[in-house]
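Hello,

Our lab assistant flagged a job as stuck in the queue for most of the afternoon. It eventually completed. Since we weren't sure the result was trustworthy after the delay, we are filing this so someone can double-check. Below is the sequence as submitted and the structure that was eventually returned. Let us know if re-running is recommended.
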Amino acid sequence: MQLHRLIDHGAQPLSSIYSAWFERAEHLCRYLPERCSRVDELARQVDSVRQVHGHSTQRNNVVDAIRTSLEASGQPLMPAQSRALETLARPDAVAVVTGQQPCLFGGPIFVVHKVATALRLTDELRAQGVEHVVTVFWNHDEDHDWGEANHVAFVNPALDIQSVRLRLPSSGLALGAFEVPGALERAVHEARDLIVQTPWGLAELEAFLPKSPRETVATTTTRMLSRHFGAEGLLVLEATRLPPATREVLRAWHGGAGELRQRTSTTARELEAHGHVATVDAAAPLLFSIDATGRRRAVEDGRACPLDHAPSAAVLLRPVWQDWLLPTLSYVAGPGEIAYNALLGPIYEACSVRRPQLVPRASLVLVDPRALDLLDRFDLSVAELRQGAEAIEARIVASHGTPDEGGAAKGIAARVRAEARELKSRLAALEDDVAKIDHYLVHPLHRIATKTAAELGRYADKVERQRRNRTGLFRQHARRLCAELAPRGACQERVLPLLPFVARGGPAFARRLIDVASPFDSGGHGLDDGRPRQRLVLWQPEGEFDES
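-- returned structure --
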């Protein structure tokens, strides 16, 4: 796997906050930490993290919750994870953190890109001499957005984008409490027909089968990440595993909801004055409560979370709670997360929590040699593919087709058939004159005319088949490129999951992403050229198999 070239995000709009932050706009310095451009800049912040978190009273609770999360997933704990847990328990530990709410089959592959970026950053920090650094994925299974978590899409054999769903109604339960074993088993069987039938693809799919009657999308996500990255020491924390002692601070913070709300509203107005729109509503709930059944409900400002309910951080408090619990040196975030983090500065300050450095995740477009050859042959960009297959087919025909596809000679077959009929008619008109010479010569002339017309007809059929085949091949190329690299006109990483890539790329595919996920420019590719870019990554399918 190798970084082939940098590409523009194209038609996919990025938040203006993210773009301005990436370009180091001065007016955002008040709202977001300045973006690091080198790993040594980040390494210099390690001591300040240790000073703040070295005496944490919650560290053992966090370590126990991570251990429980990993063990409950059904994936055996790997030696590197055991060592990482021991490291995290140390008072001088620091963490590179990333996270996402869980989703069927692990969700779109950008989740794995986050993990790969975080692990690569951890490796680069160790290379700088930073000791006792671990990588943590915050599996936010307290989220209850079932409409986002219950489906993911695949490219089916007909080159259409087909969703696979957990066919259960929304329940209002936190995802970590929403048990889905039966629906999950049906989804696994449905997905089987949508991946290449390789041994490693089938093994990957089997790993998603329920391991207990209490299976949730959260436990399958933990299992998938541990399966692929446990050997790299990745720790996965399911938020629902955190004990009550870690949550009391949420009650205290919510007691000052009025002040927090005023601060975030002021920040939102200031951002709007700079021409930005915050990607999260400043009036969104700060706190939810989770009852004994797992149901999650918003807690209004000025009201207390019931004592028999578990307080659960909403989107504006979750990062602050995370960084209060973990010795977070840096958080690997996507563009949307960085944009809404612009609202959070006042909350970190009011809650007396150290704000970590934000590091953008690698944005990858994964392309195999066949698709890369088509891109280069037809001089297409990934951004152009978002126009859709019909537009791309027309573009290919116009620039690389023959005059037939261009329309100038589209009726060649019909013209050949017309010439055959005309020749047969002209020869038939000679029969009376030939008969005057010798009537025995009429039949051979008729036979020649009929045979020649038939041969020309067969030739016309060949021309028509070739024309259709060539046009159909262009159509197939266009549909394949659009489906694989720009599904539904969107970014590949926001639609397709890891599963089909593992099925074709082999069991080590996910770990190989670490090689191309450096957040900094360590390979001479100009990754820090002042504007956000995607990376076109070339990967090689593992072995030979039938993809028809």
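-- support follow-up --
The delay was a queue issue, not a problem with the job. The result is valid. Residues 97 and 331 are 5 Å apart (CA to CA). The longest helix spans residues 442-485.
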